[in-house]
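Hi V.,

You were right to ask for the full record rather than a summary. Here it is.
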Amino acid sequence: MTHTDSHANTTYSGPLNDQAVLERAQGLLDDFMSRIQGVPYEDKGVFFSEMLFVLAAVGPGFDGQVLESGRARGQSTFVLGRIFPKSKIISVEFDRDSPDAPIAEARLKDLDHVELLYGDSRRLLFEQLQPGAAVIIDGPKGFRAVRLALQLLRTGKVRKVFIHDTYKSMATRRFLENHVPGTLFSDHEQFVQQFKHLDDPCWAGFDTSQPLEWHSSSSGVQGNPSYGPTFACIPHDPACAYGPLLWRLHLANVMARAGKSMGKKLARRSGV
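Predicted structure:
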């Protein structure tokens, strides 16, 4: 698909915050929808509204490097290729033998600016990293994902890092909210209300009669108030002391694991 980037010369100033991302997304919606027109949703993939969040946070016309950790069937990789046509996109998947790998390769074979690598992203991302990059982490998960994000930000080369699966019940979500100022989340109430319609094809494949760790406010599932798996966006902060923050993350991980272990012991004692 040939598409002229009508926003290539648009510049944005001021701090990145929820309102700024919301306003950018509103202005980008028509262009975004034209870019994803005809793109089917692939199982295990990132939601379309979450990808609009990524585009709005990075900014239209971005032509820097995009690194992705965790590809699965290539849903997010394919959409990244559509919304960042001027960027070099390098996607890393750990398991070359995964049944998802050939599905992703077939889907992405015609995107010349997308490169697929296999191996440990905790090494490969640093080897490939160029100044001004945007990074999307969808594996590893949990505290390992946050540690990788902070290590990348510590290099000073990364513009923004996005971490997938940061819904509200997670210990890592609480850590980001409490200790990493400036972190934004794609399940922001106003953002969801305005753009959740993009995800109708995504929800079609979910069995909403089964409990989920996150849910759509329109799905009828009761439970966690997050919308979808959720992206966190962490902008680089030159004033942030990432070394001490990584140590604090380590302590939070230890405490979370201890709490989980204690919870299991109490459950066994009570016969639950």
